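Input set for joint prediction.
Command: fold jointly, output tokens.
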Amino acid sequence: MNFLSLFVLIPLLMMLGLWVSADMKQIRAVMVTGASMLLVLSLGLLASFLSERAAGNTAEMLYMADVMWFAPLNIHYAVGVDGISVAMLLLSSVIVFTGVFASWNMNPMPKEFFLWFCLLSVGVFGFFISIDLFTMFMFYEIALIPMYLLIGVWGTGRKEYSAMKLTLMLMGGSALLLVGILGIYFNSAPEGGNYTMNILEIAQNQMPMNAQRLFFPLTFVGFGVLGALFPFHTWSPDGHASAPTSVSMLHAGVLMKLGGYGCFRVAIFLMPEAAHELSWIFIILTGISVVYGAFSACVQTDLKYINAYSSVSHCGLVLFAILMLNQTAMTGAVLQMLSHGLMTALFFALIGMIYGRTHTRDIREMSGLMKVMPFLSVCYVIAGLASLGLPGLSGFVAEMTVFVGAFQNADTFHRVFTIIACTSIVITAVYILRVVGKLLYGTVANKDHLALTDAAWYERLSVITLIVCIAVIGMAPLWISDMIHGSLAPVIEQLTK
Amino acid sequence: MDYSNFLYMREELSLVAVMVILLLYDLFAPERSQRRFQLVACILFGVHTVLNLFPHEEATAFGGMYVYRPMLTVLKSILNVGVLIVFLQAHAWLESEKAVIRRGEFYFLTLSTLLGMYFMMSAGDFLLFFIGLETASIPMAALVAFDKYKHKSAEAGAKYILSAVFASALSLYGISLLYGTTGSLYFDEVAAGITGSPLQIMAFVFFIVGMCFKISLVPFHLWTADVYEGAPTNVTSYLSVISKGSAVFVLMVILMKVFGNILTEWRGMLYGVIVLTITVANVFAIRQKNLKRFLAFSSISQAGYLMLGVISANALGMTSLVYYVLVYMVSNLGAFGVISVIEQKTGKVTMDDYNGLYKTHPYLSLVMTLSLFSLAGIPPFAGFFSKFFIFAAAASEGYYILVLIALLNTIISLYYYLLVVKAMFINPSESPIAPFRSDNYTRVSLVACCAGIVLLGILSVVYQQISLFSFGM
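tokens >
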């Protein structure tokens, strides 16, 4: 048994533990133990991965394991990781860990909430370790469906509408994706032989060009829906705004990364020729995502909507960078995934904590919170600065790499769109500073707010963990960008073949 | 005549034995043992299921009229398990005051239809096929009208018999035309004589229309919702799962074996029928408030997905079809089991009655959710795997657009399945269904369904076993 499978097994065991636990104390014990184990496991994986690479192991994927699952269709349960998956696993476990603390006082039905939460984690972790298209798709869908109940039951506002919209749109994306996957599968052996679902094996064979033209857009849009690709992003603001705190964190922080990760791991890696040929369409769409998301965030008054639109903009940048099809921009894309995952999780955690106290998310009804809850406010400022790309925090590293990489494409089309995308940095600054100024500074308008308390220990733990991660990537980005850069080599090789 | 031929029909014979024993038991057993009638029925049928679990070698009997293939044992076993689950679920209903004196008839009629399906599947000849078809549908009408004091049940019975007879007549007319052009009723000889002449195409159209009635494919589905709503719930679940599964399987065998020469023609027709079926059924299902009608439309759309396996006309399609039938059976029976027990205890069948069900009946809600998720094709439940394989089968023949249409339809279906889930978990309710204790038979059946839903997909051995048999076909 491969130790990567533990990433799936631990959440499953957590579900079992939750099933038998009787009160809140036991539920918390199970969740904290499980989440810490996941965090330790992913840190261990990172350490052992880096040492393997340092020792000169240059295999494309490490810690591979392969078990035949459905022999008639040559479907395997196949796992393996490269630097990018390691980074994503680390991100996921950090966010699951902090998410548990952010929903410390979950009410009502905490047991059911965490059961679905764990199922969501199963899907997320499983997706990042899979290298077989079938298992990958299965875990992808496992991650989607718990969202419906998590938002529908425990959400706020127009939760039923948002939950249904989110689920149906994402399932629509996965419908396109499934056709894409079947298309890839039945074209995986152009010279005869067994069809295969294994990504590495498919990449060795050249898929026929007409098949690529057909299935690249399907796959890219399929994953793109989850990555908030314009015009399929509309589920995201409603969904995130209605979801409970830890679900928003996990969804915006990790689940949306499934889209970006899938786009390059499946769509671009397996169909490089079509990627070259058709990328212009998606560059236009993602360019719109980036700018439109940022502008929309400027006019929102609900904190969660602001952050959700900001996610559309930032995730659009991830897809945008991937489509630049060069190593620097793609490294930037992965860094942006990490950075956005951490900082949007931080944002949603803070918003959840503020909302839990003030019972409003409307920025017009709050002001001067810095005086009332200094800890949360300072953290909010830090998150905001990370989001607008202040050097020393992760956002700067990511966006810098993305734009440098994007500008390496010498033709006018790419350059124009890079410049357009760059403007989002300025717009981001506008909406971040607007919120910070309105929400945190000034006098306390609502006298009831004066009695509010600052963060409790579990909230502090959750927030500080995230800030530390953001700062580590911001201050010392080289080790992680090297790890990602190295792992992108096979993709680039495919693209230049 | 060589009586050893009968030995090849051991499945049918053992079923007949069960039927006869039950009939005699019902008639002659003393009052005291009568109370155990249902238990005896379940045990006997369980024994029959276990005895026939293992396939024997391929054989033909009665000059090719009866054909045995190992695949049939697989399918018959699947149907047997389904019937057993239906029997377990029907227990509470048959113990109720009005039904108790007629419970013997319920078992006898149900098993008669099953016998008809057995013969239909084993037929190597249109005559036996037709006799099987009729044996399967006429007792069915009696079952549908079982609650004859209820207006709706009687009406449903009449509707069912009329449409069934009409469909049979159409099929029979098609068969007679085929006989006219090929001079034989044996599948092999008819297959050799099919040249694709206009008359044969017309014969085929009549034949397939009759079958579409039976499987309730659009536009021949209009009887379905009323019959499903009117029939007693346990009969509805039997009708939606067992008879549908066997009919689709037979259709695939006949289309491949007999009409192989006009493959492109019938594929074109089926293409249209499939698109219509899944789209119309899914759109209509959205508006249903009565859960039995709701599941009626859902089962029409599921039949459309089943036809994706038929249209592929290859071994992968055959495997996926049988596997789909199995998974669909446990999922649908899970859902019907919950509806049946709630209807039995409280008489409530509309979606609004299910508001807040999770508060009072967490386990029933869970079973219902699992079943609906499986029907919608959500992993890690078995429905995901069966859908994936059936789509893969259609895609293997290049029907990508059809698969895409079907997949977009699964989103519509997910919407209405989620409406039920929403009612149970999210909607508040002033007067939720009061807590009650369900009987042990129902519990066993629901546990079996849940086990099937969870395990059938993840344990790949099931699919692989089915696959082993289907390559022989």
